[in-house]
Amino acid sequence: MDQYSGLGFDLYNDYTVKVEPSLLTGLVGALLLFTGSLSQDFVLKKVDIGSLSITVTTLHGLQYVCFSDYYDNHDYIKGKLDEVISIISTEIDPDNFLELQIDKNFEEDIKKIIFSEDFPMDIIPTSYTILDEITDNEDIYFENLLIADLNHGLVHSYSGDEDTARLLIELLAQLPFENNWTGESEKYMRNNKVVKECLLLSRIGKTDFYLLSKAIYKPSLYEDMLDQFNVFKESLNELLENSK
After folding, report:
1. Is the full-model pTM beyond 0.85?
2. How do residues 145-188 score in pLDDT, each as one tens digit?
3. C-alpha R_g of the chain
4. pLDDT at position 64 over 80
């Protein structure tokens, strides 16, 4: 869309956002005008509205806008948007950009960029067997354990409650792409035992999938807990490689 007039068109629409495109461009145009009125140095890059996340990149006076789910990883989405811009920017004349014709080949190129690989669900039963073999210490308990996709959220939950799963996926959405993260609590009493808990978010190999967990464990067993988590993650990566 044009940075100043707010006019624009769809490069690609998979219709997962059930809103008229003209309303979305109007919304973004209003946000751009608002941020511009605050300061010329203020650049709108991302805004969240309810379950909708809006990512904006500006190049040669044009705004490239991506609408995605709030729980999608922002760095990942920004990288995908930049890839799309790289293949379209050479074809666009900023002064006559509304005349650009989007053909089927270009749509297919965009699909290849934005759609992540599908998780092979047939490996899940085997992964349960591996998980049972690894988690054999009663002083280490993965209260929440799930696989998530960078742009589709929850893939599969092995254990845990929905609220904690949502928290882990929300943390993943804020995590710099390709980074891992752990957050450990202080000691506390639980069921008459002194324990710690740790949130873990770690990428599975070079895939678009992450293993997320909330682990409860005896304080002296942090390294053992981490080893169990990483062994399971590497086992999942091997299953994914063998499924290709």
Report:
1. no
2. 999 987 778 899 999 998 999 899 888 888 776 778 999 999 99
3. 22
4. yes
User: Which pLDDT does position 15 carry in this prediction?
Assistant: 72
Token pair for 195: 């324990």
Lowest mean pLDDT among 26-30, 228-232, 233-237: 26-30
Domain that holds residue 160: 121-242
Q: Is residue 171 part of a domain?
A: yes
The torsion angles phi and psi of 139, rounded to 5 degrees, stand at: -90, 5
Are residues 65 and 155 both part of a single domain? Answer: no
Report strand pairing: 52-59 vs 46-49: antiparallel
Residues paired with 212 in a beta bridge? 146, 201
Per DSSP, the residues of 93-121 read -TTSGGG----HHHHHHHHHHHPPPPP-G
Q: What is the pLDDT of residue 18?
A: 67
CB 63 within 8 A of CB 8: yes
Task: Read off the CATH number of the domain in which 43 is found.
Answer: 3.30.450.70
Residue 240, number of CB atoms within 10 A of its CB: 19
